[in-house]
UniProtKB/TrEMBL annotation:
Its cofactor is heme c. Keywords: Electron transport, Heme, Iron, Metal-binding, Periplasm, Signal, Transport. It comes from Shewanella algidipiscicola. This is Cytochrome c. The keyword Iron applies. Residues 1-21 form the signal peptide. It is found in: Periplasm. InterPro entries: Multihaem_cyt_sf, Tetrahaem_cytochrome. Residues 38-118 form the Tetrahaem cytochrome domain. It holds the Pfam family Cytochrom_c3_2. The keyword Ion transport does not apply. Gene3D superfamilies: Flavocytochrome C3, Chain A.
Amino acid sequence: MLRILTTMCILMLLSIPAANAMKIKDYHKEVMTGDNGKVECSFCHGDAKRKTIPQASACETCHGTPDDVAELTQRPSDADHDIEPNPHDSLHYGTDLPCTYCHQEHKESQVYCNQCHEFQYPDMKR
């Protein structure tokens, strides 16, 4: 399954003409724009080809480890069952699910868990 998802992502990225013409979230654009005014793809993609999926360590540079993010999005222990579960600490994957399964930079993000469930996360950014 992961191989199919990776292949699909790579094929989609190959069809995009130029990185600076790509859609980038405003809050990331501020951080990733170099002195020349252009977005530095290497900020997320490192030395790998631009069209590769970033390593989790690229996300961790700014957002912290998966455990840090899970702690930030932890639900109150006394919460009732109407509150959605913590998407960063799932019952199935714990904190091991790669960030890029849900969070997309160049297209709309989606909730990976919604392939089987129907969770609503109203604060999820584009």
